[in-house]
Specification:
539 residues, alpha/beta, Rossmann fold, TIM Barrel, 3 domains, seven-stranded mixed beta sheet, six-stranded parallel beta sheet, 29 strands, binds zinc ion
Length: 539
């Protein structure tokens, strides 16, 4: 969401700011009575708190509840009809009600259902009628209390360790994790003073459509030209994920050789980008042995025995040797993007990708991880630390019945729903056939609104990585109508966009001000470049 924040265990330091998030929970050991009094005074004087799982009686009246009941049996959450600004971005039915876990599982994540007191307003409730999200105005400030952990409704989904909370697997709009990020964004925008945010999409645009093709059959190479042609004619480009199959096995013959290699070289020379789609493309990839990390061509000899069984295959081998081959065979190629066959993901994948020189992955579906924003893939798909790998989950694919060519209007609806949230959509079209599918892709591109960027996955992912890693600050100056925006990027980046609450009159440093006076697009930054821009607000 591009919201600036820092983490501290020092209460006075936190309360020096206008907006404070209490995380991960508040029980009777978290604060002393005098600290609780400070929190209450902070809100009374115009502070804003967003908290989750407050259990302590000492803060009951500040947060506006009488009691709570922890349970693992609440499966649904519904937002109330309210004027409250923090639900501002939740306008669609899929956002107004979310699923916390499958109805088929009796016990899912823990939730704390609150009983509000007479002052509090209930902004969302669980299926048993208890309050899931409360707000309470105290003095000049306001508090929000969530009866769920963001770890469970955001990170757990992104790890795919959720209790099957997704309502669809692919091809539908599933913002189950995004709604919590959108709530935090709305909270920041409602109560921040002169706020600024680093936008998710470059160039001041609304959204991005990331195009990709999986090449996982001997006859899937030549049709790639038709897709590339359609994309070029519609100011788009795409990433081809290549299965580097050099062994014959029970699933298919080898096909990673001439003339297929020439086709990949020509696609790349024509402006497409290339990623790895493993070697044997096994449905059993997530159950393979890890391997040594020394696998190499040609001594690595994996063979599929059937759809999900294989011999001689390892996770490292599939990831590392496919990159070795692509990098060796295609001029100028450095393979940094991976997509697993059949979207099967072993928990070691983030670390194996890191150790093999990759930066990006696209092996999940967006619906399955309930996320339409790219995110850092946690190591071991766990809860402790992020890996260096960014995940770009697949939103739309071509194989579900009745096939992509007949689902273009549906795909467009999902893309527009994501665009409304400033999120992205990833499209996967297998290049096994181009008569119907390239025509359908053209149809989709022609109907795409002009403020949705259409691009290949590698280009956007490099932008995302640079954006995620920049250092930036906005500092007031001695002149009340001026501020200094400082940005430093380790990596080259084009189109970084900042959104301001206050309309801007002029800006220095070659930045472009959008007609709405609230979006600034930075000039291209070179690696290690440091820019300082003077922002002069309208007055
Ligand atoms: Zn595939």
């Amino acid at each position: 969401m591009g919201i600036p924040f820092f983490i501290t265990r020092d209460l006075p330091q936190a309360l020096g700011h206008r907006l404070v998030i209490l995380y991960p929970s508040v029980d009777s050991h978290t604060f002393t009575q005098s600290q609780a009094d400070k929190l209450t005074a902070f809100v009374r004087q115009g502070g804003f708190i967003f908290a989750q799982d407050v259990f302590w009686g000492g803060l009951q009246s500040l947060f506006g509840f009488r009691s709570f009941t922890p349970l693992r049996t609440r499966h649904h959450l519904t937002f109330s009809e309210t004027e409250d600004p923090i639900t501002k971005y939740l306008n669609r039915p899929e956002e107004r009600e979310t699923q916390l876990g499958s109805d088929h599982l009796p016990e899912i994540i823990w939730s704390n259902g609150y009983v509000p007191d007479a002052h509090a307003e209930v902004l969302a409730h669980f299926d048993d009628g208890s309050a899931a999200l409360l707000t309470n105005s105290v003095g000049k400030g306001k508090v929000y209390l969530l009866g769920l952990s963001l770890l469970d409704v955001v990170l757990r989904n992104q790890d795919n360790r959720d209790y099957e909370a997704q309502r669809h697997y692919v091809n539908a709009f599933e913002p189950g994790a995004d709604v919590w990020l959108l709530i935090l964004r709305a909270w920041y925008e409602a109560y921040g003073q002169d706020w600024v945010r680093l936008a998710a999409i470059p160039g001041g645009q609304r959204s991005a459509l990331l195009l990709s093709h999986d090449v996982d059959w001997e006859n899937s190479f030549a049709p790639g030209f038709d897709f590339a042609r359609v994309e070029k004619a519609n100011q788009a480009s795409s990433t081809f994920f290549i299965q580097t199959k050099y062994v014959d096995d029970a699933n298919s013959k080898a096909f990673f050789f001439a003339p297929n290699l020439d086709i990949i070289r020509q696609l790349k020379a024509g402006g497409s980008t290339v990623g790895s789609h493993s070697i044997i493309h096994s449905r059993g990839f997530n159950k393979f042995e890890l391997g040594s990390g020394h696998e190499t061509y040609p001594s690595y000899q994996p063979r599929g025995f059937g759809f999900d069984t294989a011999g001689g295959a390892t996770i490292f081998g599939e990831v590392r040797v496919s990159k070795e081959l692509l990098d060796g065979e295609i001029p100028g190629q450095d393979t940094i993007f991976f997509r697993a066959g059949h979207l099967r993901v072993p928990v070691s994948l983030p670390e194996v990708l890191e150790r093999s020189g990759y930066q990006f992955d696209s092996s999940f579906t967006a619906d399955d991880v309930l996320s339409n924003f790219p995110f850092a893939l946690p190591r071991d798909l766990g809860f402790e630390e992020d890996s260096e790998i960014y995940e770009f989950p697949v939103t739309i694919e071509d194989e579900e019945s009745p096939g992509f060519a007949k689902r273009v209007p549906q795909a467009l609806r999902v893309i527009l729903a994501n665009a409304e949230n400033g999120a992205v959509s990833v499209v996967l079209i297998h290049s096994n056939e181009s008569i119907l599918k390239a025509a359908a892709e053209q149809d989709l591109l022609r109907q795409l609104p002009p403020d949705i960027i259409r691009t290949d996955m590698v280009t956007f992912a490099k932008f995302w990585r640079a954006r995620d890693r920049i250092q930036w600050s906005l500092t007031p100056t001695s002149v009340p109508t001026e501020a200094l925006l400082q940005v430093e990027s380790d990596e080259p980046v084009i189109g970084l966009t900042f959104e301001f609450q206050r309309p801007i009159a002029t800006v220095t440093g070659g930045a472009t001000l959008f007609p709405d006076s609230r979006h600034l697009v930075l000039p291209e930054l070179a690696p290690g470049q440091n820019v300082s821009l003077h922002v002069d607000y309208q007055h």
